[in-house]
Amino acid sequence: MNILLLRQQVDLQEHQRRVDDAKRAVLSLLGQVGGPGTGPALGEQQLLRLYDLDSIQQHIEKLAHTCTEEIAVFATGGAQLAESLEAARPLDADVLARGVRVRNLYLDAARNDPPTVGYAHWLVREGGQARTTPHLPLRMVIYDRRYALLPTDPEAADAGAIVLESPGVVAALQSLFEQTWRHATPFDQEPGRDEDGLSQRERVLLQLLAEGNTDETVANKLAVSVRTARRITAELLKRLGARSRFQAGALAAERGWLDGTPK
Questions:
Q1: Which of 72, 101, 193, 257 fits a disulfide with 252 by CB distance 3.0 to 4.6 angstroms?
Q2: Does residue 99 sit in the same domain as residue 213?
Q3: Domains: count for the chain
Q4: What totals of helices (H) and strands (E) does the chain contain, helices first?
């Protein structure tokens, strides 16, 4: 049993490393995006930059109508806007009817939003798949493993978007999706706890605190209220017997709560 647990922990550490590497690469890529239109703004990588919501929606509809195999989605922000869900429903219904696989990844916080939960259950009933995870690096949609649509500003999805059609870049984004999907929880299951008694969200929160993030930043990344972030932090400090965040970080590291290796 110890050997099996050790193998699982090593696998989780490798997963986290790949996710972190892919996230840094994606954010670096977005920082390089230049002027409008297609062109060699990223070396020989072709891209299309979209500047307004109408252009983004039109391109989403075009890609949805022409895809033939799969749509993979990172849906950040916790609760999804009602208008976004209504706009997505006919597109998802159409692609699912054509036999296209649809996989949506939401934040765990979305489980507290009835409209988002209702949409996820509808998607599953129609033949799609939906899972949740504590943290997503950015919003993105990948079509047929060929096109990737991402916001130009990860903190403001309505500020514009880019469509990438570079095999190497899209493959890296697909790998990020697959790694995250593999460790996510299906919507019809409750997120569990690991052998340390930690939920995925608690482990991610500890990591965010160890990186020096404020309560506000932690809450934003987890798509929860600042009050909820502080409550979870206080509960973790109590479990660790720590009087401060610094001491909690040291104790969590000592117990292996930051790297998945129990002490």
A1: 257
A2: no
A3: 2
A4: 9, 8
